[in-house]
Design brief:
The chain has 247 residues and is α/β, with parallel strands linked by helices. It contains eight helices and seven strands; from the N terminus they run βααβαβαβααββααβ. Strands 3-2-1-4-5-7-6 form a seven-stranded mixed sheet, with helices on both faces. α2 packs across α7, α3 (52-70) runs antiparallel to α7 and α4 (90-104) packs across α5.
Length: 247
Amino acid sequence: MYRLLCITAHPDDEAGAFGGTLALYADRGVEVYVVCLTAGTAARNRGAAQNDDDLAQLRRAELLLSCEHLGIRFCEVLHFPDGKLDRANFHEVVGALVEKIRRTRPHVVLSFAPDGGLTGHPDHAMAGTFATQAFEWAGRPDRYPNQLAQGLQPHRAQKLYWATADFVLADRMPTAPAPVTVRVEVGMERFERKIEAFMKHKTQAPLFDRLRKNLGRAPTEEMFHLAATREPREAKLESDLFEGVEE
């Protein structure tokens, strides 16, 4: 069985940035895992939360509902500080992700690019930066040897993809997106399921209309950049994240 690990920054990223693709592969029987670095407590939209602890609890519950709607059975929220990932301890965050890669042993890893995706969000950019380094280091026995002493084994995932697009949002900070090398056709039904999954994040209700407007520019496909591969290869256009992947 194929395994896909998606590394995000906040609850709701799994739906807004990756939802159609995650639903597609879950429908195909791929084991899909989502690891979210923060509980999203720096959000301006806070629903009924009275404090950060309330908001963290709400957003973790919303993530579970969203993943369930997308067909994802495995999701986890880590403890890193929302809005401050650019100041987090690099070695600690990468180590946490290396541990997740070594435990889940994915064939493919999916995250943001260092530009921060369509929104250019600094936390998205850092999630992609941490995920990229974890992809490289998870397979090296000289990185985080304490994990190996506890029984984990190095794991070399076969492909790393960054989310990207062939357009930018005019009302956001300037970004330099990674070139599109993959177009995953998810279809209108999964696009709508992705929107529905995002709407499970009820604390973020003020964003619902904006999300549909922004994503409606390419409703039935999600775009990615092949950032790294286990085996050296030439770049080529793809339509399937698991093209050429060995079980």
